[in-house]
Amino acid sequence: MNDLKRIRLLDSSSDELHWLEQILSEMAEEWKIECAESGALALQKMLLRSFDVVVTDFHMPKMSGEELLRKVMLEYPQTVRIILSGFFDAKVTSRLMHTAHQYLCKPCNPIELKDAISRALFLRDLLANHDLQRVVSQIQALPSLPALYTELMLELQGPDPSIERITRTISRDLGLCTKILQLVNSSFFGLAERIADVAQAVIHLGIEPVKALVLSLQTFALFERLKHDDIPLKPLWNHSWAVGRLAQRIGQMENVEMYSVHQCFTAGLLHDVGKLIFLSGVPKQFASAISLQRHEKIPLWQAEQEIFGCTHAEVGAYLLGLWGLPISVVETVALHHRPLKSATRTLGVTTAVHVADALEREAEPSFHSAPIALLDETYLAELELIDRLPAWRELRSDLVAEPTR
Q1: What is the structure's pLDDT at 405?
Q2: Residues in CB range of 256: below 8 A, 6 or more apart
Q3: If 248 and its partner were Cys, which of 26, 134, 265, 376 is the partner (CB 3.0–4.6 Å)?
Q4: Where do the structural domains in the chain lie, given as residue ranges?
Q5: Residue 64 or 229, more confident
């Protein structure tokens, strides 16, 4: 009984609440389900005993679901927070993503709800790993959320976001402007005429890819002072950029929803950010991991596991989790070398980034110093995706051959 995860359910409708309880009762061997009819009652119960997960309707009487989760976030930050809503409003949804770990639409698909809870619990437990905490504690300071990204997020989450103000913020960074124009003018968008105006580029790209570029470029800028012969930053940036673009294209080819396509790009750009943290915080130990990788001819993440007890994937996910990025991005970064550990068994962000990373490394073995098969074909076989590999390899070749306009 002590190993059971405790799940608290709240809904404004008693019928909906009973239905949710029935859905999750199938997990009775792993989860203990308890219901509450109000946020106040749920908080009262949590004073006596904490819960692993709180799932609440947005429209709760007296105390809204958003208000409840904000209180839970402040008082019980280790609790997974999931909100359900029968309506969609872009501004509200953007705000909720900073309060809830997951936002699900009602009526809720039972498989989607169970999958969301399983993934969130797995990720929480993964990032609570004692070895990871020990390594992070050795790092004097994790980098703060980059200033330009923070400024951009404040604008996007404001009451009246403006393309003009977004463009003005972005235009202060020459490198970012260049990358945005490079991406929008690539053959990925198939535009008849070249775009030279950043405002037009932002409109064509969409907000999520722009935020991803801002965050990734600013993050690399934090580490420009680092000098490390084994992992120079320019090739690492080029690899991250290539993985982001290829993962995005795989997502589009396989018809995943557009929001997930954008997250493929974000997670691909940021998948190796943990290496920057190792380089900055524990450079001697990281050098030992690189040496072990080369001597034993094993993947770097396996060498890191032997040296640190965790890998750059988990450390990077830890940082992105602290920065409040979407859970699907954090999970993908944590599992991009070990997708079989994911609770999800559908083609999505984790699949696209894992494949893109492996194909890029396969094509550039000299940089990665490890001519080792990194593609998890067991995982792809489980998803019945092995036969898609030739198309994805061809896709990568097409991307490499694309002219830079």
Answers
A1: 45
A2: 264, 347, 348, 349, 352
A3: 265
A4: 5-128, 141-401
A5: 64
